[in-house]
Amino acid sequence: MAGCITMVKYQGLGNDYLVLDPNKNRVQLQGKKIALMCQRGFGLGADGVLYGPVEINGKTGVHIFNADGSEAAISGNGVRIFAKYLMDQGYVKEKKFSIETLAGPIEVECLNSRATEFRVNMGKASFLSKEIPVTGEVREVINEDFSFHGKDYKATCLTVGNPHCIIFMDKVSKDLVKDLGPYVENADEFPERMNLQICRKIDTGNLDIEIWERGSGYTKASGTGSCAAAVTAYRLGMVESRVNVNQPGGMIQIDITDNGDIYMTGSVGYIADMRVAESFFS
Ligand SMILES: N[C@@H](CCC[C@H](N)C(=O)O)C(=O)O
């Protein structure tokens, strides 16, 4: 249809993204337009936008944007969604391939014929303050005292390509993370802002998390958030190396290898092909 932009909507455990393919559309992406696209009232409604396939470091890659238009180096659900998009569109025929992101190359493996299950090597985590980043002297930020919105918490911070703060609680809920999330996301200690997961240990093989995403707010699932929660619980000796991370949108399975690689296994669902009026981008 003349004068329209095509986008494809997918979800990973209810964490929904719009895929905008520059090979099929001539558009200039700007933060405020991404934010408008993601709005659930005046826009198409999504937790973020995946812009690709594009060339990153000479390889096939994707740019990942949050609902406020900010760019994230990595998204776990986003990478699984983009892997499905590449297969659905015929860009990729193999079952194992790599997707380049601003956090580096991510190895993905399609686990079924419908391309709805993927296993992803998300790389290694770092708890080092200067890599996350967290202000203050260089140290590992493990079970450290923080004060958010006038209340004291023990928190662990790490990067899995993007920054995460993990706070263990006896009870987690949507209300709790929505109350605390904005204060953690924008705390002075976090120069690049922060993703928050509040986390409850169910047993040595299961965690329960609620998520407040940097740049997107409350979401039903987070792949990198699942990795961050599992690796933190493992580092603190709370769980085994295989952890089911339960969250409102479903369960993501995390495997931590002896050399510290984090494997994430989870589902992806196609939602719709969308035609968007070009005026929407003007
Ligand atoms: N939901 C995503 C995380 C997206 C990026 C995050 N909001 C950030 O800004 O780092 C996931 O599945 O990892």
From TrEMBL:
Annotated site residue numbers, Could be important to modulate the pK values of the two catalytic cysteine residues: H164, E213
Is Cytoplasm one of the keywords? yes
Question: Keyword Amino-acid biosynthesis: yes or no?
Answer: yes
| Record's catalysed reaction(s) | (2S,6S)-2,6-diaminopimelate = meso-2,6-diaminopimelate
Supply the Gene3D superfamilies for this chain: Diaminopimelate Epimerase, Chain A, domain 1
Q: What is its EC number?
A: 5.1.1.7
This protein's source sits in the domain of life called Bacteria
Its main localization is cytoplasm
Positions of substrate binding: N15, N66, G76, N77, N162, N195, E213, R214, G223, T224
Pfam families in the record, alphabetically? Answer: DAP_epimerase
Q: What class of enzyme is it?
A: isomerase
List locations, semicolon-separated: Cytoplasm
Q: From the Swiss-Prot or TrEMBL record, what is one GO molecular function term?
A: diaminopimelate epimerase activity
InterPro entries assigned: DAP_epimerase_DapF
Give the record's pathway. Answer: Amino-acid biosynthesis; L-lysine biosynthesis via DAP pathway; DL-2,6-diaminopimelate from LL-2,6-diaminopimelate: step 1/1
Arranged from A to Z, the UniProt key words for this protein are:
Amino-acid biosynthesis, Cytoplasm, Isomerase, Lysine biosynthesis
Cited PANTHER family: DIAMINOPIMELATE EPIMERASE (PTHR31689:SF0), DIAMINOPIMELATE EPIMERASE, CHLOROPLASTIC (PTHR31689)
UniProt record similarity statement: Belongs to the diaminopimelate epimerase family.
Q: State the oligomer form and interacting partners.
A: Homodimer.
What HAMAP family does the record point to?
DAP_epimerase
Please explain the role this protein plays, according to its UniProt record.
Catalyzes the stereoinversion of LL-2,6-diaminopimelate (L,L-DAP) to meso-diaminopimelate (meso-DAP), a precursor of L-lysine and an essential component of the bacterial peptidoglycan.
Instruction: Supply the name of the protein.
Output: Diaminopimelate epimerase
Q: Which organism is it from?
A: Blautia caecimuris
Q: Which gene encodes it?
A: dapF
